[in-house]
Design a protein that fits this description.
This is Cell envelope biogenesis protein OmpA. The chain has 126 residues and is mostly helical. Helix content is 76%, strand content 0%.
Length: 126
């Protein structure tokens, strides 16, 4: 799968999540579930992840080991802003359903990125 195909898959999955969250009761005006927001952040997340993948691949003595730790760590850390959002409601329309949808979108980016990056920029054990 190419980077463009991976981005299309991630965008389609995030569109389904956003639509499902709204259907389940999330406020349709909740910014992160709107098309411009999730398209922008899905593509930015994939681009940042790919840049990080390439940097680790090029510079780490054992990139496979580094990525085995870094990918899940960053996935977990991506939930910190969601937790803060849930606790404070700093974005209008925040609700548990809306924030759960947003958190699932983070997992989609990871779930799509890793296999695509492995195909496009394989990491070999050194």
């Amino acid at each position: 799968m190419t980077l463009v195909a991976g981005a299309a898959v991630a965008l389609a999955a995030n569109a389904i999540i956003a639509t499902s969250a709204v259907a389940a009761g999330a406020d349709a005006r909740f910014g992160p579930l709107t098309v411009p927001a999730y398209v922008t952040f899905t593509l930015a997340g994939l681009a940042a992840a790919y840049a990080g993948w390439r940097i680790v691949r090029a510079r780490a003595a054992h990139p496979d080991r580094v990525l085995r730790v870094l990918v899940p760590l960053l996935a977990v850390l991506s939930f910190v802003p969601d937790g803060i959002l849930l606790a404070t409601g700093f974005i209008p329309g925040s609700s548990p359903i809306a924030v759960a949808g947003l958190a699932l979108m983070h997992l989609v980016v990871v779930a799509v990125a890793v296999p695509v990056f492995r195909a496009v920029a394989p990491v070999e054990e050194r």
